[in-house]
Amino acid sequence: MRARDCKIVATMGPASDAPERLAMLIQAGVDCFRLNFSHGAREDHARRMDAIRAAEAKAGTPVGVFADLQGPKIRVGMFANGEIKLRFNDIVTIEASSEPGADGLIRMPHPELVNALEVGDILKLDDGKLQITVTGRGRTQLEARVDFGGTLKNQKGVNVPTRRIPISALTAKDREDLAYALDLGVDYIALSFVQHPEDVHEAKALIGDRAGIIAKIEKPSALTQIEEIVEVADAVMVARGDLGVELPPEQVPIAQRKIIRTARAAGKPVIVATHMLESMVEAATPTRAEASDVATAVYQGADAVMLSAESAVGRHPQSAVAIMDRIIRAVEDDEEYWSSLPRDMTPPQATTADAIALSARHIADVVGCAALVAYTATGSSAIRVARERPRCGVIGLTPFINTARKLALVWGVRSMVTEDVANVEEMVAKADAAVRKLGVAETGDRVAVIAGIPFGRAGKTNTIRVLRLE
Fold this sequence. Notes:
Layout: E1 7-11, H1 19-28, E2 32-36, H2 42-59, E3 64-68, E4 83-86, E5 91-96, E6 105-108, H3 111-116, E7 122-125, E8 130-137, E9 141-148, E10 150-153, E11 158-159, H4 172-184, E12 188-191, H5 197-207, E13 212-217, H6 220-223, H7 226-232, E14 235-239, H8 240-246, H9 252-266, E15 270-273, H10 288-299, E16 304-307, H11 309-312, H12 317-332, H13 335-340, H14 352-367, E17 371-375, H15 380-387, E18 394-398, H16 401-406, E19 413-417, H17 424-437, E20 446-451, E21 463-468
Parallel strand pairs: 1-2, 1-16, 2-3, 3-12, 5-6, 12-13, 13-14, 14-15, 15-16, 17-18, 17-20, 18-19
Antiparallel strand pairs: 4-10, 5-9, 7-8, 7-11, 8-9, 20-21
Helix pairs in contact: 1-2, 1-12, 2-4, 5-7, 7-9, 10-12, 14-15
């Protein structure tokens, strides 16, 4: 069976914790697992990490893992009666306080938010089910008009699409979770509610080179600096949950396409997430609209698509993965996918390594290579080639297991851990052995190989070799 290029991410949870279930999910097609630090105890995530690594060893293929930090989720405070009623066109008071609110009074334990709001700002409450608009402000209080009414319960979420909130993307809890996740050995850290590049820089200062950073784009303010955010991040996620609350629904597909194209041009892996096969939390099959949603992300060139509740708490996690795998393969078997897929993404200000990657893809297309092998220490060479979307796929050969696991998130890359090579003869021999072992080439096939000479020096890709397997 032809290797699938677009990768599948599955969120860990009670439905996928069991070791036998993990093995089945990997067999069904999961390339990378998500540990959601918004839920569960740290000990749960440690146990899951151990189970993933055990399942990875049994499967004999590198599997990626990323820790998804909760981020500064803004919530209303408590209410004296547990809830209040918001009625259309009523005027309510907003106050920065940890004391319980009451009818007509919403208290929030977020003074930085209350201080930043201005007349005309919109607040969406409880995932957008309710909405109020600020109509006046005093020294310590705000007044707001109810646009969409209903029942507002304790600690429901608050989204502010009209205002950049002066708050760090890393809370005290996130910093503790970050240190814990790095000690677990995760491959990426997903940073929630990124608003500007400084959020990513702040996280990088703490992470160093211990893991990559996935910038989750879920705030409209991030879209205004998307190129700068993508440039400093290692990967990007189209986080359509909160993004779909803060943006009008008709703008979410446009934002998704923009984020994917920006990440593709920068050569950064991009994940499309949230509500992809949501009905499969309960149902055994997805809706036709959900199947189309997954297909659209693949057609647009996403590196990976992600399951959330479907694999974490759903009744059919393995079926959800299998169906997602089938949808991806159907798209990738469509000739129109390849004819419409943006390629030649290398920018004019390309480095030598960029030019080598682009040339390798052209050579592979022209001579009909069965595989394109990239020797890579950090993963950058394989990622560069993947940006060009070669039809034959990419084999990433690396001496480091951590690099192989990071590449599990990258479109079209199948990675293998192998000892570094010392000369051209070893380079050819290991590439030959790797493509045969993976079953992507056989005697008589051509294979393109890119590497850096002298060998063993990262960031020095400068060589293309085309071999015919003897």
